[in-house]
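During data preparation, we tokenized the protein backbone, and the record follows.
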Amino acid sequence: MRRLLLIALVWAAAWTPTAAQDMPRRIVSLAPSVTEVLYEAGAGSRVVGVTSYCLFPREVLALPKVGGYLTPSYEALVALQPDLVVTLAEHADVEPKIRALGIPILRLDHRSLDGIVRSIEQVGERCGTAPRAKQAADALRQTLAGAKRSAGGARPRVLICFGRAEDFRRLTAAAPGTIHDDLITQAGGVNVLASPAIAYPTLSAEGIMRLDPDVVIEFSSGGTDAAALRRQWNRLDSVRAVRNGRVYVFTGEFLSVPGPRFARVAETIARSIRGER
């Protein structure tokens, strides 16, 4: 606490009322999806610091790092002299310490597809780039419109998963209340998981077989072979989705970042859920 107070005093000495009232010119992002939104909204040139997990767009690779997603370095923050730090709802425990330093905060919500779109407009309004941000948000809304088309008929029971072992001893799935659940719903499906108690529970092979989803959507990253991952699902040939050839694998690092790029592939993923080729 004493160390945080010392940092706050140092920051206060450099802070002026004029700077506090002006439009933000030095922005720090505390999440990869936030960084993407800042650039999408036309405020990318003002970003002076990001987390060690921010990898896109490529320009951010050369920017100073302020620590991890939920473990920022407050000394690094002060050194960058930001006039705005942009956070997510997940940073609720971090925000009071940032406020104690006298640094303004803008919180975004990336727990739904609509939240991603609205956050682009929020950044535009806060940073004075509203026309550019609205244009980007409207374009993304048009893209998402395809994912919101009614599937018609019965709604397939969908399992969205990632981070699994090759032998299916453990698999991470998305429960109700997550952005992945939002994707399932907008595509006309229903989440095979019913409880929102744990956002991303771990399942076993036996658990998957008991759930018996109609459709499986797997997200993978790290340059993995999508075809090879699909073949591995043949081990669970008693599962309806496997028997009916309704296992779809999507690869790409950006799939773990709930930002604009994630939203842009929503229509493609929705087509898979609806059984469209």
